[in-house]
Design brief:
The protein is an alpha+beta fold. The chain contains 18 helices and 23 strands. The strands form three sheets. Strands 2, 14, 15, 16, 17, 18, 19, 20, 21, 22 and 23 form an eleven-stranded mixed beta sheet that branches. A seven-stranded antiparallel beta sheet has the order 1-5-6-7-13-9-10, with no helix packed on it. The chain has a five-stranded mixed beta sheet with strand order 3-4-8-12-11, with no helix packed on it. α3 runs parallel beside α7, α9 packs parallel to α12 and α12 packs parallel to α14. The two termini are 47 Å apart. 48% of the residues are buried.
Length: 620
């Protein structure tokens, strides 16, 4: 068995924080998002196609894809948490979408069909980067796969297979149409469709009846990488340059993350999935370089990516301004990228990044009442940035639903001989080879059913004094790829305690990050902290004392300023929940001037290739 991640439905989350949080996502956020989509007309687009009303399209060109992504999240939640009312609602959506899909040869993208049917896939006077035809149809595939896995129903799968069969018959190496997605997502979706029919033999009759071409789905996903940078007979966007959608170079020559950040990171996620299924070694060289480009040169300390406002995308190396764009969806896509990379090469740093994005930008992007959302996640605010109750481009809520509904599947991974513990979230998972249970206190009980199994527990990059205790006695381990590795025959009567400390400390950036020269940020475990005006007399522009005397007062982190003033800090993910708009109390900052900071050239010599490092360790 190759290295796999469990389906989210196979892992039960028992963690108090996450159990309550995910319940609110399911009970409040999920129906709220569908209500809003119906209100702004996304569902009526499908009705217009199904009933041939002639109505013009409502919403952005990617409205179908956003609706499908929310459906995918809803189905993935259903697989773990049955909900009769939500399933009935989804059934109604699926039936309407299926009716729309029966109106032609399998093509289903409502804006193109309603407003410019002669511009399929950006041809003629169209623009594939703006239209989102392939993105929309890829998201349909995702929703269809999730519907089947959660409910056993094939309503959407029928529509998605017709759509996919049309695409694989039309798009591919010349003389087929040389078209790559203007917005990545279908690459990974087509790998998932291939896996579904490969792994689920009970679909054999469906596959025969509906002319499923599973190998062609994987071949098309691969084509969307081998064809990048080859513009022969391709109609390019008249508005956006090829690097915007990662079409500037052959994928196997790409080494730097460029363009629209969400498109880029979904492109890389799909490439990692394709690499795993095809075994083509060329992917890994590019993926390693792109991962390094993103996480060592273009990542903000709060887990945000995509500095530029004009293209919602990547800037030059180390150009990491604190007022950066940092779209929520980009951090979510980075998390998906990290998860896929871990399956190719099981290193702990992938989940160091996953945790950074999860506990900072991703949690920050939702309000306390689960009905307002951040599109951007800057590291400084004058008080003019707030979550919105809805947006003209509401792409973040569906992506959040996809991540949260999949979260339990990232806690562990396994192959025939190994079990990886990647995230410290209270949970349970049982297979035919082992049963594992982890408490919120990081106590692991593992039963390997009398057979030898190697346990690999991630050592977080922030962990101080990491050690393992078996029945409260020290257990020796070896370090390998960021994991503590122990092999044995495990019994659930044994308690394995993972012990490490998280100490408040100051962080510094590589001196090539000009925005943060002379400055420090604060971090505790994976949590980045910030100052809000509401806690600091309307002020967030501080100089931190040389010896800041970091300590907690309740749930607040306290630091001392250079003038002896008290600086009150909260976890970044909690900001903007208590303040009125456009007032001094709504100000926020993550980076602060540091009194008598070490010279930047000294810091540069101590970074050891890292983008961010512990300043307090540097000065000891």
């Amino acid at each position: 068995m190759s290295h796999i991640r469990p389906m989210a439905s196979e892992v039960k989350i028992t963690d108090a924080f996450w159990s309550e949080y995910l319940q609110k996502v399911r009970k409040i956020m999920l129906p709220y998002v569908f209500d809003k989509f119906e209100e702004v007309g996304y569902l009526s687009n499908f009705a217009a196609i199904a009933d041939s009303t002639g109505e013009k399209h409502k919403g952005p060109p990617f409205s179908d894809g956003l609706f499908y992504e929310a459906m995918r999240g809803a189905y993935d939640f259903l697989a773990s948490y049955p909900d009769e009312a939500m399933e009935k609602r989804l059934d109604q959506y699926a039936e309407l979408i299926a009716r729309a899909g029966e109106t032609n040869d399998g093509f289903l993208c409502t804006q193109t069909m309603q407003d410019y049917p002669d511009r399929r896939f950006g041809e003629g006077e169209g623009d594939i980067v703006i239209q989102h035809d392939l993105y929309d149809q890829g998201a349909l595939v995702e929703a269809a796969v999730s519907q089947y896995l959660a409910t056993g129903k094939t309503v959407l799968l029928h529509t998605a297979v017709r759509s996919a069969n049309l695409i694989v018959s039309l798009i591919g190496p010349l003389p087929k149409k040389n078209i790559v997605p203007g917005h990545s997502l279908p690459e990974e979706a087509y790998v998932k469709l291939y896996r579904l029919f490969r792994d689920h033999g009970e679909l054999a009759d469906f596959a025969k009846e509906h002319h499923v071409r599973k190998e062609a789905y994987l071949e098309t996903a691969s084509f969307w990488y081998t064809a990048r940078g080859d513009h022969r007979e391709r109609v390019l966007s008249s508005v956006l340059p090829p690097y915007y959608n990662q079409d500037h170079l052959p994928f196997f020559k790409q080494r730097e993350a460029v363009g629209h950040a969400v498109r880029a990171l979904l492109c890389y996620t799909g490439a990692a999935a394709a690499a795993k299924e095809t075994g083509d070694p060329r992917y890994k060289k590019s993926l390693d370089a792109l991962w390094h480009s993103v996480t060592r040169k273009k990542l903000h300390i709060n887990g945000g990516v995509g500095t530029r406002h004009d293209i919602e995308g990547f800037d030059d190396d180390y150009s990491l301004t604190n007022s950066a764009y940092l779209e929520t969806c980009a951090s979510i896509a980075l998390s998906f990228f990290a998860g896929e990379m871990h399956l190719l090469d099981a290193k702990g740093d992938y989940f160091d990044i996953f945790e950074k994005t999860l506990y900072n930008v991703i949690l920050a992007s939702i309000s306390d009442d689960f009905t307002k959302y951040f599109y951007q996640n800057p590291q400084v605010s004058s008080g003019n940035i707030h979550r919105w109750s809805w947006h003209g481009c509401p792409c973040c809520p569906p992506m959040l639903l996809k991540l949260f509904s999949a979260l339990s599947g990232y806690i562990y991974s396994a192959d025939e001989d190994n079990l990886w513990v990647n995230l410290f979230i209270g949970s349970e998972w049982q297979t035919d080879r082992f049963r594992v249970e982890m408490s919120e206190e990081k106590i692991i009980r593992l039963d390997s059913f009398g057979k030898e199994l190697t346990l690999r527990i991630r050592i977080p990059d922030y962990a101080e004094g990491f050690r393992l205790l078996k029945n409260e006695k020290a257990l020796s381990f070896r370090r390998e790829n960021g994991y503590a590795v122990v092999t044995g025959v495990w019994s659930e009567t044994d308690a394995l305690r993972v012990h490490f400390k998280t100490i408040p400390h100051r962080m510094v950036a590589d001196p090539r990050v000009n925005s943060d020269r002379g400055r420090v940020a604060f971090q505790v475990g994976p949590f980045v902290y910030c100052a809000e005006g509401i806690d600091n007399g309307g002020k967030v522009d501080f100089t931190v004392a040389e010896e800041p005397d970091l300590h907690f007062e309740g749930d607040r982190l306290i630091a001392r300023g250079a003038k002896g003033e008290k600086i009150t800090l909260i976890p970044y993910h909690l900001w903007n929940n208590r303040t009125p708009e456009d007032s001094p109390e709504a100000q926020m900052a993550v980076w602060f001037r540091q009194e008598n900071k070490l010279p930047e050239e000294v810091i540069a010599g101590k970074m050891r290739g890292r983008l961010y490092a512990d300043y307090d360790k540097m000065i000891k």
